[in-house]
């Protein structure tokens, strides 16, 4: 039988400023380990620690722009209406330096977990 997700669960976010994470599907809100789907809103100037996750992350930017830094220092600017794929095992760092911050949907396969994201220390 289909499962209705009536509301998301707010998840604590890592990073330099407060960021809203609303998990609709995932380990917390729907007890789903295979995939997580979250609606993110990060403010201007937000920077997350670098990470080397054990999951693929598919991100669609709805508003503003998301910066995705690779291990070699290169940075992709992902604008509203664009998407980016970060493959498992790749080091990435997400940030929103622009004045609008960013609003985006993130899909992780398998589902995000604090134990599988492998964030940089400090």
| Class based on secondary structure composition and strand pairing | mainly beta
The averaged pLDDT comes out at 97
> Under CATH, the topology of the domain at 34-117 is which?
Jelly Rolls
Count of beta strands: 9
Give the strand content.
over 45%
**Which stretches of 5+ consecutive residues score pLDDT under 50?**
none
Query: Any idea what the CATH superfamily of the domain at 34-117 is called?
Result: Jelly Rolls
Sheet of most strands: 9 strands, antiparallel
What global shape is seen? globular
CATH architecture of the domain at 34-117: Sandwich
H/I helix tally: 1
Main attributes of the structure:
single chain; 122 residues; Jelly Rolls; nine-stranded antiparallel sheet; mainly beta; 45% strand
Describe this structure in a few short sentences.
The protein is mostly beta strands and 122 residues long. 3% of the residues lie in helices and 45% in strands.
Describe it for me?
- The protein has one helix spanning 114-117, and strands at 9-11, 20-25, 36-42, 46-47, 56-70, 75-79, 83-86, 92-96, 102-109.
- By secondary structure, the protein is mainly beta.
- The termini are far apart.
- It contains one helix and nine strands, in the order βββββββββα.
- The mean pLDDT is 97.
- Strands 1, 2, 3, 4, 5, 6, 7, 8 and 9 form a nine-stranded antiparallel beta sheet that branches.
- The chain has a domain at 34-117: Jelly Rolls, CATH 2.60.120.
């Amino acid at each position: 039988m289909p499962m209705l997700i009536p509301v998301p669960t707010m998840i604590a976010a890592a990073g330099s400023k407060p960021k809203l994470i609303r998990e609709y599907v995932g380990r917390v809100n729907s007890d789903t380990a295979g995939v997580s789907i979250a609606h993110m809103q990060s403010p201007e100037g937000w920077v997350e620690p670098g990470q080397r996750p054990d999951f693929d992350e598919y991100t669609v930017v709805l508003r503003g722009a998301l910066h995705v830094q690779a291990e070699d220092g290169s940075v992709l600017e992902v604008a509203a209406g664009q998407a980016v794929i970060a493959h498992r095992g790749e080091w990435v760092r997400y940030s929103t330096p622009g004045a609008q911050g960013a609003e985006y949907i993130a899909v992780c396969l398998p589902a995000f977990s604090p134990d599988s994201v492998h964030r940089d220390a400090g």
